[in-house]
Amino acid sequence: MFSAYNWFEKPELFATVRATSLAWAGSGEKWVATGTGDEGTLTPVNRTLAAAELAGLKEQIDSAWEGRAFGGVITGTNLGDLRGWYHFTLNPKKTEARLAGLALDPALAGFPPLQNPALHLALLALLKEFPALEAIFLPFGEPSEEDFEDLWMLRLIQLEDGGGWLTHQKVSVKTDLLAYMADLATPVWYELTLTVDPALVGLVLRLFIRYGHKNKTWHTPTSKTGLLGEEIEDKTAPYTVVTFLPNNPNNRPKLDSLQEALRNLAKVSPLPEVSIQEVSRAGAVTREDRIGGYRIGKHFIINVLTEDAARAEPEVAAEDLFIKLKSDSKRFGPQQGFIHPTSQITLELMEDWLDAAQYKKVLDLGTGTGSLAIAAVRLGINQVLAIDPDHVAVNIARENVVLNGLEAKIVTEAGSLGLKDRDQTGYTFSEELQRRPPSLDAALPFDAILANLFGPNLVTLAGAISEALRPGGLLICSGFKADHLAEVTTAFEKVRLKILAKHELSGWFGLVCRKI
Prior knowledge:
Layout: E1 2-4, H1 11-25, E2 30-34, E3 45-47, H2 51-65, E4 69-75, E5 82-90, E6 96-104, H3 117-129, E7 135-137, H4 145-153, E8 157-158, E9 164-166, H5 177-184, E10 188-196, H6 201-211, E11 217-220, E12 222-225, E13 231-234, E14 239-246, H7 252-268, E15 275-280, H8 281-292, E16 294-296, E17 300-305, E18 321-326, H9 341-353, E19 361-365, H10 371-378, E20 383-388, H11 391-403, E21 410-414, H12 438-443, E22 446-452, H13 455-468, E23 469-481, H14 482-494, E24 497-505, E25 508-515
Parallel strand pairs: 6-7, 17-18, 19-20, 19-22, 20-21, 22-23
Antiparallel strand pairs: 1-4, 2-3, 2-6, 4-5, 5-6, 7-9, 8-9, 10-14, 10-15, 11-14, 12-13, 16-17, 23-25, 24-25
């Protein structure tokens, strides 16, 4: 596990941890790479630290405790079992971090630097501590394909000039849709379960998501009784992480890779053996319905209630964002046990970009089931207008708003933004249904607009979307493939919507734009 120095708030406790760190660093050979945080490359080698380096290490530890930098120790089951140390420098705005030094037990020296699970634990702690980070520099030279895959698991992707890695909000995630559908046809599945310490659950969950089946991975916390007798999450107790993996030739290498990754992590911090049981595909789906729902992004869980059967309430962690949906499966919502990629794209972009402190008033344009409006409220936004020119969609969205108990925060109306010109290219609703509802004009301008619409519709509505946004406002959209990407991008740029990020999933694209 990784413990940052600034987490030890009491000076006397920090002094003990610092003394333990220095004593460990000075006790024999370590796998060491030290630097000053400049553009030089770190090259780890097995050697002992000189006295001057130990003095420099003390200064780095102090700077991390004071918040001027970030660093900490890798340990086994407790702080007495120290196995490593990492140090990152920060720019003044704390939007960039650079790995400037490391020292690891020789037993952890067998991993390539960017594939070391100790580094992954340190990076997860860094990202949690500084959520505004835009780039992390890991100067280990040219990364391999395996390096790219491991850092993609942490939602990092390399900058064009090398050495730096963009943080998760800039990452384009791809999924093989054909493989996904083939998995659904596999009759026998593996159920994989592992009970882990809270300090490791973040990395184990990412490993399970990386190698397990999409939308079928979750973690369940242990609960305890609160002071008033209520059931609350016990954040100090172990978590249970679960995933499923179809038992077919395409996925057996994934199972081997997951087991190897867990064995490597166990070298850093003790782990029990993963439990593997064979279940039927129906059994996997039933258990997913009971516990997992459709998991999207880091925290969204969507529970879909169909005409055939209602899913039971999933077991969700305190940090999960739970959404219940009814759907007309012929026209709106999930089909064949599958959340459409454009919905996944938009939800993931919302989770990364839609900050409730900055964007307090939101328009969901073309709301459909109302899922995006509900998701916005789950992210902390308290004023959402959801509109759609299709009356069937409006009725479904209103039902879902009530189902989630959010009538006080979401207003649902029929209509659209309205078109000042009469160019109906790509937008087929009648002029009556394109009219602005009265509630829209009263709410203008919006801090953010959500639009999961077909590409031609976005092109047609680009000007109206820009007019409805305040300067600096955010547009998060999806609904188009590569053949419409350039057209949509050009239309947005013409109306002062600057592209901030692009996201791809199964051939579909999403964009984040800011009005300038």
